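It is time I had a proper look at our fold encoding. Can you supply me with one protein entry, sequence and fold together? It will help me judge whether the discrete encoding reads sensibly. Leave the record below and I will have a look:
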Amino acid sequence: MDYTTLVPVTGIIVNITRGNDCCSQMLALRTEDGIVNFMIGMDTIVIDSRQLRQGMRVAAFYDSNLPVPLIFPPQYQAQLITVLGRNEQIMLGYFDSDLTASDGSLQLNISAGTMIKTLNGQNITCNLGEHTLLVYYTTTTRSIPPQTTPRRIIVLCNEN
């Protein structure tokens, strides 16, 4: 999967209904900009295989290269969904060898308490630099680039 085209939408789940078949669901998120709907199908990755429920704060990612229907509220096909903690932020991006995001928006300081796994929950023994990372954090410094010590990192290994 090309993670570079994924766009996050963060919100609170207000409704979950059955989709077009028994294996899909429609998720309604209340965001700062209003309601956004996401179709969840068999190919949607739900981090940690969490059971999604009303009231949960989540980040749902859609592929900006895929066509979307011109309807209101907006409706996207969810590629990746993760549950967020209170005041938790998330960033999906490519990080260089210094653990600075490719767009310069965040630099990571890894601590002994940072949980680092692969997408399927395995330990990773490689350097984190030069990978696409899903980073969970709460606070940043006011420096340029902002720095954070993340709570959790998921390494998204690209297929070669």
Summary: The first strand starts at residue 6 and ends at 18. The mean pLDDT is 93. The radius of gyration is 16 Å. The CA atoms of residues 95 and 101 lie 4 Å apart.
